[in-house]
Amino acid sequence: MSKIILIGSPNSGKSLLFNRLTGLSQKVANFPGITVDVGSGKLQALPDKTLIDFPGTYSLQAISAEEEVAVDYFERALEDPDVEQVLCVIDATRLEKSLLFTLQVIRDCERNSKKITVLANMMDVLENHDLTLDVEGMSAALHTRVIPISARSGKGIDEVISELSAIACEVREPRAHLVDTPDAILRGEAHKLAHRFGPEGDVLIRTQNRLDNFFLHSLTGGVSFFLIMYLLFQSIFTWAAPVMDAVEGSLAWMADALVPLLGNQVVKDFTSDALFSGIGAFLVFVPQIFVLTFVIGLLEDSGYMARAALICHKPLRLFGLTGKSFIPMLSGVACAIPAIYAARAIDSPRKRVLTYIAIPLMPCSARLPVYTLLIAAFIPAQTALGGLVGLQGLAMFGIYFFGMMTGLLVTGLISRTSEDHHNDLPFVLELPPYRLPGLKPIVRNAWNRSKHFVTKAGKIIFTVTVVIWLLGYFPNYGADLGQSWLGHLGHFIEPVFSPLGLDWRYGVAIFTSFAAREVFVGTLGTIFGIEGADENMVPLVEHIQGSDLALGSGLALLVFFAISLQCVSTLAILAKESASRSLTLKMFVGYFLLAYAAAVVVYQVTGLLVG
C-alpha cells in the first residue's frame, strides 16, 4: 500500500485536513504542541493509499522533543520506497513563517527524489478579508505545484484528491541550487517569496492586535482569564446536570424493568447490585466528561489557549515552570496521559521534568466522578443569579484550584531545592490567529474522548465490580455484608483509613481505586447495592448521606483524591516518557504520603471547627 506524508508547521490546519481526508477523529487544536505523535489513516476517497500525519514543526532543525519526533520520522519516511508523495501544508495568512519550513521540506524531498505538493490552507480567511495569494506565481517560483485549499470549509479538497489519484509523475532530479542551499539562504528566500506572492496589507494583524489588547491586557486579560477558567468548571455542573438526570432516570427505569424478569436470585442480585448499582453509578458522570472536553476544545481551537499560556508564563516561572507548561497541565484536566505527551513541546528538559511532576495533580476526568459524588453528598445544591452560580460549582472550582495549586507548590519546592540550570532555552511562543472554533470536530472529539473513557475505564470497573460483588455476596449470599469475604478484607485494612473517619467500606473503595480512580464510585455502588439488595436502585449519593459519613471524612476524601497518584496507565506512560522508573516510583510514593497526611489534617481541623 502506497503512503503519503502530510507535514506542516503548527497551526497550519494540518490535523483538520487529515481528519477531512481520512474521516478519522484526530484531535485538532489551535496551539503548538497538541499533536505530539504520528497518526495514520486510509484516505476515504482512495482506500489503497495511507496518509501519515506528522507532528507540526517550525523547522527541520529540531529543538523540542516534539519536533525531534517529527523530524526523525520524516527523515526516515523519505527513505521508505512505499512513500510516493509528500503534502506540505502552509498557512496562507502567515506565509513567510510557513515558507521557510516549506523550502526545507522541498530541499529534502529533492534529495530523496520524492514528489511534493504544497497545500496553501486558510484561503477562506483571505477571502473573508478580500485578500489574495498569487498561487500560480508561487508555484512557478517553488517549481512545485501549489493548491489553494480550506481545510475548514472543504474548498480545494477535490483537487487534492485528484492530485493524489493521478499516476505518479516522472522522478524529479535534484536541483543543485536547492539541494545544497543552507538554511540561512532559505530564510532570505522565504522572505522574498512571501513579499512577492503573499497577501498585501495588515488586516489580519490589526484584527488580532485588537483582540490581544483586551485578552493580554494586565487588567482585562487577568480578569477574563479568571472568568473563563471559572466558567469552565461551573459548566461541569450546570450544562451536564440535565443529561446526568436523564442517564440516572434511564438506568433506574431499566433496573426496575429488567431485574424482576430474572428468575435466578443470584443472577438477579448480580444484575441489580453489580451492574446497575456499580457500573451504573459510574456512567451517570460521563456527561460531565463530555462537557469538560468540549469546553477545553473550544478554548484550544479558538486560539485562546496560547494567550492563556502567555498570561501564565510569569506566575509559572515562580514555581520553576514555563508558560508552555500551562497547556500540558490544562490538558491534564481531561487526562494525564495526553498531557504527558504534550509536555514534549517544552524545550527545556528541566522544565519538562517539573511539568511531569505537576501533571498528576491536575484534576483529571477520572477524578471527576469522585469529586461529583462527594460534592453532591456534602454540598447543598444552592444556586444564585438564575442558576449561573452554584454552591456545588464553587466547590468543584475550589477542589480543582486546590489540586492545581498543590502541584505548583510541589514543583516550586523541588525547583528551589534541586540544582538550578542557567542555560535553559528562552520562552518563545507563537500566538496563532483567533478563529471561530469548528464545532463539528470539537463535538466529535468530546464524544470520542467520553467513549474512550468509558470503554477504557469500563473494562477495569467491570472486572473490579465483579470481584467486589463476589467477595461481598459470598459465602452468605449477601445476608450480612460485614461477615462476607469482602467484609473480612475491609476490616483488615480499616485501621489504615480510620484516622480519616472512614469505615471498612470506604477503605475497600480506596484500595480498589489504585487500579483507577474512577473505580472508587463503582466499588461503593456495588457495596451499597449489596446492602440494599431488597430495595430498588437508589442513587449512590443518598446511600452516602444515609451512611452517617462525617463532613470531615468527606472533605478528607476530596483532598486525598486531589493529591494521590492512583492511575496505573499514567505511571506507565510517565516512566516511558521521562525514561526514569526512579522518578515515577518517587512520585507515586511521595504523592500517596502527601495525600494521606493532608487528608488527616483536613479531617482533624474540620472536626475541631464543626464538632
From TrEMBL:
Keywords: Membrane, Transmembrane, Transmembrane helix
Transmembrane segments: 214-233, 274-299, 319-341, 353-379, 391-414, 457-475, 555-575, 587-610
Domain FeoB-type G: from-to ranges: 1-170
Domain of life: Bacteria
SUPFAM superfamilies membership: P-loop containing nucleoside triphosphate hydrolases
One Pfam family it belongs to: FeoB_C
Protein name (Swiss-Prot/TrEMBL): Ferrous iron transport protein B
